[in-house]
Design a protein that fits this description.
The protein is an alpha/beta fold. The chain is built from 19 helices and 18 strands. Strands 3-4-5-2-1-6-7-11-12 form a 9-stranded mixed beta sheet. A 6-stranded parallel beta sheet has the order 15-14-13-16-17-18, with helices on both faces. The structure holds adenosine-5'-diphosphate and alpha-D-glucopyranose.
């Protein structure tokens, strides 16, 4: 039996701001339970819904030193869908309405979390062989594990993995302050360790000190070795190339299943979608106040509204996308300029554009089910889960060929009759527009072809099973 502890800053169903939570919360369910005991540790944020908080069971508490102060660490646990979750409690750090705030606060918050998490491991009654860290918030863990914790017998031999879900976010802050907060000696703050461009960099620490590094698609694993995608760490990614691999994400096929999804109006599967799927479109049109027309080509977007997601391309040709024969439904929050851009077009084309500037799990399912196509022209995309959700619901993705989008959406080839979606290569608004218009043409003028694309999309298998086997292989390779 191998014991693995995931440590991360978010996990469904407790707390989610993006795809990281989906991965951390759902992947552990899909390991072979006879051979792998995979558990998860996250902060006990006060913004986790009460229905979960009240079920958490207090285990123990102790104190650690951080930034010259003694800090309380509470440890709670809760088994959810067969997976054991641990929660680190400290209301000073994990209070507030959201998991993240200003970077200077988060820097201290996640130094605390990393140190507290490692300190809590011996009291769990569960000794991990591997600690599997996710993103910059846990970057200090491999560092601490090599430093002070390796001295105690308990930690001897524990290996670590750093999974990069997004290289853009690195946890960068003033070197002297980070020294003070973390209590790590000067030795660690050199350019071959935690220092990057004069600042301290948590993710870099994790990448330098972890035994293995993974990211969430093969293409992204290659891309981050180049200056364009490397976010100033491409040199390091090349240096560690032998320990770096890409394992594509899956999605939870129980949560995202058009056949059983209670959020949607008409349930359907790969056989019945021709008769049923459109009912979800009409229901959505009704709910959002768009013209009710089951034949209208409806494009969906569900996204954090940031430049990563290619929204500059969309803004640039918004008028040309939103022609009379198209409806566009957007669900997302983020940068104000994008929120306002979509609000503007909602006002300008009220009958065919709907901007929903909020976060809503039910609405996201209605969009994945109700739309004909799903637009995701990302500037970069480590994996992307939204396009996998669209495929699952037979909503044809239109994507840019980058990162996980390239690895998961097979472009339609009209000569061979293959493909699960539409894609374009360059970060260019007119190239994107050309592909959207091509998709629209197939939808309106070659309906049988379109339905075959939907067929193939729904058959594509991005459940976690394949990827969980790859993580198992990785764990095995470490011994
Ligand atoms: P990222 O992690 O970069 O945000 P992913 O595609 O990996 O991108 O994951 C995004 C996840 O967040 C998906 O589960 C998507 O459905 C969800 N999501 C994004 N914005 C919203 C929103 N406004 N309401 C509901 N779900 C959202
Ligand atoms: C990040 C990436 C996204 C990926 C997700 C889960 O948020 O932006 O592409 O799917 O992590 O790995």
């Amino acid at each position: 039996m191998k014991n693995v502890l995931f440590i991360a800053s978010e996990a469904v169903p407790f707390i989610k701001t993006g795809g990281l939570a989906d991965v951390v919360g759902s992947l552990p369910k899909y390991f072979n339970k006879d051979e792998y005991d995979v558990r998860v540790m996250i902060p006990k944020y006060t913004c986790i819904p009460w229905e979960y908080r009240q079920q958490m069971v207090y285990k123990t508490h102790f104190y650690i030193d951080l930034a010259w102060r003694s800090q309380y660490v509470g440890v709670f646990e809760l088994e959810y869908n067969g997976v054991m979750f641990y929660f680190i409690d400290n209301e000073f750090y994990f209070g507030g309405p959201k998991p993240y705030s200003w970077i200077h606060e988060d820097i201290e918050k996640f130094a605390f979390f990393s140190k507290a998490a490692l300190s809590a491991v011996p009291v769990l009654g569960f000794k991990p062989d591997i600690i599997h860290c996710h993103d910059w918030q846990t970057g200090l863990i491999p560092v601490y594990l090599k430093e002070r914790f390796s001295q105690g017998d308990f930690y001897q031999g524990i290996k670590s993995i750093m999974t990069i879900h997004n290289l853009k976010f690195q946890g960068v802050w003033d070197l002297k302050k980070v020294k003070d907060i973390t209590g790590l000696p000067d030795y660690y703050f050199t350019p071959d360790k935690l220092e990057a461009y004069k600042d301290a960099n948590y993710l870099k620490g994790g990448i330098v000190y972890a035994d293995k590094i993974t990211t969430v698609s093969s293409t992204y694993a290659e891309e981050i070795k180049t200056p364009f995608y490397g976010e100033n760490l491409d040199g390091l990614m090349n240096a560690r190339a032998n320990s770096l691999s890409g394992i594509v994400n899956g999605i939870d096929y129980e949560t995202y299943n058009p056949e059983t999804d209670d959020y949607i109006t008409a349930k359907y599967n790969q056989i019945t979608f021709r008769k049923e799927k459109w009912k979800n479109k009409v229901a959505l049109q009704k709910e959002l106040g768009l013209t009710e027309d089951k034949g209208k080509f409806m494009i969906g977007i569900v996204s954090r509204l940031t430049d990563q997601k290619g929204l500059d391309l969309i803004a640039y040709v918004m008028d040309q996308i939103c022609t009379e024969d198209v409806q566009l439904v957007v669900l997302g929050t983020g940068e104000e300029k994008y929120e306002n851009m979509f609000r503007h077009y909602d006002w300008k084309y009220g009958d065919r554009v709907s901007a929903n500037i909020f976060y809503s799990e039910p609405m996201s399912h209605k969009i994945y089910a109700g739309c004909d196509a799903f637009l995701m022209p990302s500037l970069f995309e480590p994996c992307g889960l939204s396009q996998l959700m669209s495929l699952r619901y037979g909503t044809v993705p239109i994507v840019r060929e980058t990162g996980g989008l390239k690895d998961t959406v097979q472009p339609y080839n009209e000569f061979e009759g293959t493909g699960t979606g539409f894609s374009f290569a360059n970060y260019n608004a007119h190239e994107m527009l050309g592909i959207i218009n091509y998709a629209k043409d197939v939808y309106y003028n070659r309906k049988r072809e379109w339905n075959k694309i939907v067929d193939r999309a729904m058959l594509a298998d991005f459940s976690w099973d394949n990827s969980a086997r790859k993580y198992e292989d990785l764990y095995n390779s470490m011994y």
